[in-house]
Design brief:
Elements: H1 2-15, E1 23-27, H2 33-41, E2 46-51, H3 54-63, E3 69-73, E4 86-92, H4 101-111, E5 112-121
Parallel strand pairs: 1-2, 1-4, 2-3, 4-5
Amino acid sequence: MGRWSARLAPLFVDFARVRDGDRALDVGCGTGFLIQLVADIAPRSQIAGIDLARPFVEFCRSRFSDPRIRFDLGSALELPYPDGAFDRSLSLLVFQHLPQRGKAALEMRRVTRAGGTAAACAWAVRGTVPSN
């Protein structure tokens, strides 16, 4: 999905109105493409990435040395963060793989402060309707 992430991420970050100084979360961070983009455009932001796949988290921890960025192992269905911990909670090309999209969306909303943004970008599949 790397080539699609490269095309979609800048549009998605603009859509989500990521701003310098935001506390941002990437749900389903994979190899960290979205996190790298946020770090580049928002140099004063604190950024967290979470993924269920240990190899992705370990890869990201070895790839990024920026103290503003952290990576956690965990599920989008049970985010291990306090209520309102982030200004922006983002998920790029992950929701189509989740068994309970509605629960993940509620978790993203929970960890996003009032007035913040929880946003997900997913594949549209012709002839199907997204479901929980």
